[in-house]
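Researcher: Let's do a round of design. I'm pasting the structure tokens now; please hold your answer until I've finished.
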């Protein structure tokens, strides 16, 4: 029984670390590329995040695998055939998927009795999910209304929306990109609010559980 638990622990840790690396590349590294490499890299990394996000919450993966498979297939079809409306459908599928993953991950953290490195890595990954959700919603808003944002340069690359999403999520707000459209403003407010609430509630919950466990030991 102990051997099985140890094996599950290491598998879970491996999945979460892999997901953390993929999220790191998606947010911090991928935007440094350009041209076709940027587009193909986006698709590959994004698809892998789907897979490892499910494996990180493996007790729920049987239902989510089908959902993620549909989202990935729709994405690649719209990508290769340049079908904008199908790409919009893919974005909406992705948003729903990540919202489900965020909810399930937070529930998993709330139920955790023992806080280890896995839980802290999961918490970081959830924060990445929030930023990714924001970037997708912002890109859809821009697709629906190209005048939704005021910026010095045109917002053409997905990396622009990732940048603006995380800048807003952290309440940093450089001001180089400003939401003008009501929908863009609402999403920006939601991101800023979510980032503050997440740090205040989820991270403090994990730290509190960790300290209580230390005191009990």
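Researcher: That's everything. Go ahead.
Model: Designed sequence:
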């Amino acid at each position: 029984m102990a051997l099985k638990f140890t094996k599950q622990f290491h598998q879970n840790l491996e999945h979460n670390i892999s997901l953390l690396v993929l999220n790191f590349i998606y947010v911090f590294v991928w935007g440094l590329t350009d041209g076709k490499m940027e587009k193909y890299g986006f698709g590959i990394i994004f698809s892998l995040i789907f897979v490892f996000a499910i494996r990180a919450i493996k007790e729920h993966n049987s239902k989510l695998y089908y959902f993620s498979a549909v989202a990935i297939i729709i994405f690649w079809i719209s990508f290769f055939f340049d079908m904008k409306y199908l790409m919009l459908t893919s974005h909406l599928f992705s948003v729903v998927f990540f919202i489900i993953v965020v909810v399930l991950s937070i529930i998993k953290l709330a139920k955790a009795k023992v806080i280890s490195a896995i839980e802290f890595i999961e918490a970081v990954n959830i924060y990445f999910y929030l930023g990714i959700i924001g970037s997708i919603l912002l890109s859809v808003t821009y697709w629906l209304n190209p005048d939704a944002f005021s910026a010095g340069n045109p917002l053409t690359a997905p990396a622009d929306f990732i940048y603006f999403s995380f800048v807003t999520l952290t309440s940093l707000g450089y001001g180089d990109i400003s939401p003008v459209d009501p929908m863009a403003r609402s999403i920006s407010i939601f991101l800023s609010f979510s980032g503050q609430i997440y740090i205040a509630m989820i991270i403090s919950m994990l730290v509190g559980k960790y300290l209580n466990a230390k005191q009990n030991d």
